């Protein structure tokens, strides 16, 4: 029988039999006896094992005699073929559209969604020419483009059986997923129907996946806008979406101090885990190729070892992933390439240094770290302290369905445009706005908190201090039921360390930690009111009229409800006017 934690290592006690959820899903499949069956199982739970076990049984019964697997990427074609060979199913991962049919010594083929979309008639012939089971891996990719969805439906409409697999059976848009049934909910919106669901919470309780701890890092960011203004804010404080996106972009800049500090903390966490799991590895998810290479250089300066860099347009990308999976080197840096389906079970530490912020991408990315190999393994993922990622970290075990009638992105929290818009150069014919371009000026990191199972632990701490180390240096092997207790203990110890430090710190010593928000707001309001008084005397206008004009120019609510960033924006406008 295939190892439940394909491709190499079976977790404790599961190598010779199916996991409970896999057997339960098989029973439900045969009880339902329907043409299409959607299985949603959390990444790392063993969807490949389930699908191939079902394929073996259907072939034994004579229900099907051809197996077609549709995968998202070229790399996964080989991975599926190797897995199938373990249960004596021969699949051709090199099948081309010009081949028309697989060689007679194969039971079928593995293809990609793009391959089907390029020539659906070839794949329709494959489905019609035999009693075919089509396994659609990560089926939500069938909705990546309208033409893809149409091609998938055309190609596999004649198939006798269709098994739909996904770790995340939802999309960040309203493109329908082929062969998925949609039913109206109580509000009338059409929602996808899952035939069998095995979520992260249940998998964690069963010991099938690792517990994931999210290490949130905030910090002070300063940048120059496209209009030439210099802005400064603390990542993680109450900011507008636009300011948050610019601060987030500044944090991810490899030239600042934020990324080196977070990468250093992540590497120290990896070292701690490797005391117990010697081959544990780390993965940095980067936004683009330029910063990926820059992050790799930072990691080399920290560790003295070369990091494996995986780029999507590199012909050797799959080989690099396989080599990293098999060795015991410390770090890999990738641009989206390792976001879904790629199996590197030794990954235990992650750094989420990418601009993608949809629940779909986040779930796929975190899925790279949850695959359990032995009892007690835990994973740590380091994140920027921004609201959208904070919310996703707090909802790790939330079950999501795909909605075709979503009213707006805002309602579902599916806002993936924050950094995309920030990273795009503004195109305009106005010569004045071309005088400046966005520029990250400085960034400083500090530890903010750890999020685990929707609860938050810890408080602000500077990198490299004993207070931060409380949440970096705990053991690499942890039973899920003990994680909460340990975090509570570390939070108490961190508080005692901070109190001791503050008691012994001289008043003249400085810190990079931000002052409490209520103090910052008070200072900004006092400064704004002073400038309003000065300007009102210069112009002979009432204070209220000046405040109203500032709200018209800068936006936002009245002073009492305004955020720090909104107050700073009004202060900058007044400073320029007072000087002039």
What are the low-pLDDT stretches, counting only 5+ consecutive residues below 50?
1-16, 400-434
Q: Specify the overall morphology.
A: globular
Instruction: Give the helix level as a range of percent.
Output: 25-40%
Instruction: Specify the CATH class of the largest domain.
Output: Alpha Beta
Instruction: Tell me the CATH superfamily of the largest domain.
Output: P-loop containing nucleotide triphosphate hydrolases
What is the CATH T-level topology of the largest domain?
Rossmann fold
Give a verbal description of the structure.
With 580 residues, the protein is α/β, with parallel strands linked by helices. It folds into three domains: 20-205, Rossmann fold (3-Layer(aba) Sandwich), CATH 3.40.50.300; 212-397 and 433-504, P-loop containing nucleotide triphosphate hydrolases (Rossmann fold), CATH 3.40.50; 517-579. The chain is built from 20 helices and 18 strands. The chain is globular and about 90 Å long. It starts with 19 loop residues before the first helix and ends with a helix.
């Amino acid at each position: 029988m295939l190892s439940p934690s394909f491709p190499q290592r079976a977790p404790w006690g599961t190598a010779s039999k199916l996991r409970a959820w896999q057997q339960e899903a098989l029973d439900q499949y045969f009880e339902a006896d329907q043409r299409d069956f959607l299985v949603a199982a959390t990444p790392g739970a063993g969807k490949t094992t389930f699908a191939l076990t079902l394929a073996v049984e259907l072939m034994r019964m004579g229900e099907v005699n051809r197996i077609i697997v549709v995968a998202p990427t070229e790399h996964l074609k080989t991975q599926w073929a190797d897995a199938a060979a373990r249960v004596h199913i021969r699949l051709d991962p090199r099948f081309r559209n010009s081949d028309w049919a697989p060689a007679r010594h194969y039971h079928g083929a593995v293809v990609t969604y793009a391959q089907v979309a390029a020539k659906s008639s070839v794949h329709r012939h494959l489905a019609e020419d035999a009693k075919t089971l089509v396994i659609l891996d990560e089926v939500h990719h069938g909705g990546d483009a309208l033409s893809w969805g149409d091609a998938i439906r055309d190609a596999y409409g004649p198939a006798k059986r269709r098994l739909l697999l996904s770790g995340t059976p939802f999309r960040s848009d309203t493109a329908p997923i082929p062969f998925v049934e949609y039913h109206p909910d109580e509000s009338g919106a059409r929602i996808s129907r899952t035939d069998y669901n095995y979520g992260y919470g249940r998998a964690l309780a069963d010991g099938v996946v690792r517990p994931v701890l999210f290490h949130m890092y905030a910090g002070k960011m300063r940048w120059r806008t496209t209009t030439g203004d210099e802005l400064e804010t603390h990542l993680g404080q109450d900011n507008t979406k636009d300011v948050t996106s610019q601060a987030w972009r500044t944090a991810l800049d490899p030239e600042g101090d934020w990324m080196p500090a977070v990468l250093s903390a992540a590497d120290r966490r990896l070292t701690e885990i490797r005391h117990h799991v010697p081959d544990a590895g780390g993965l940095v998810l980067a936004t683009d190729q330029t910063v990926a290479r820059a992050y790799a250089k930072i990691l080399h300066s920290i560790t003295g070892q070369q990091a494996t860099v995986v780029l999507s347009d590199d012909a050797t990308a799959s080989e690099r992933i396989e080599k990293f999976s098999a060795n015991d080197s410390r770090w890999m840096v990738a641009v989206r390439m390792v976001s879904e389906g790629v199996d590197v079970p030794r990954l235990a530490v992650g750094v989420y240094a990418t601009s993608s912020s949809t629940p779909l991408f986040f779930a796929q990315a975190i899925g790279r770290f949850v695959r359990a190999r032995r009892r007690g393994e835990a994973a740590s993922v380091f994140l920027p302290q921004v609201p959208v990622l904070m919310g996703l970290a707090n909802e790790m075990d939330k079950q999501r369905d795909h909605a075709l009638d979503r009213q707006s992105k805002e309602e579902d929290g599916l806002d993936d445009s924050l950094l995309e818009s920030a990273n795009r150069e503004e195109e305009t014919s106005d010569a004045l706005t071309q005088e400046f371009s966005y520029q990250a000026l400085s960034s400083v990191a500090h530890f903010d908190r750890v999020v685990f199972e929707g609860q938050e632990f810890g408080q602000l701490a500077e990198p490299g201090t004993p207070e931060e180390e409380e949440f970096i240096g705990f053991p690499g092997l942890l039973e899920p039921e003990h994680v909460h207790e340990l975090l509570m203990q570390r939070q108490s110890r961190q508080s005692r360390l901070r109190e001791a430090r503050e008691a012994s710190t001289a008043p003249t010593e400085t810190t990079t930690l931000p002052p409490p928000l209520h103090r910052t707001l008070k200072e900004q309001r006092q400064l704004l009111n002073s400038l309003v008084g000065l300007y009102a005397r210069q112009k002979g206008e009432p204070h209220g009229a000046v405040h109203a004009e500032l709200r018209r120019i800068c936006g936002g609510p009245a002073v009492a409800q305004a955020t720090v960033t909104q107050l700073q924006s009004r202060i900058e406008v007044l400073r320029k006017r007072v000087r002039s």
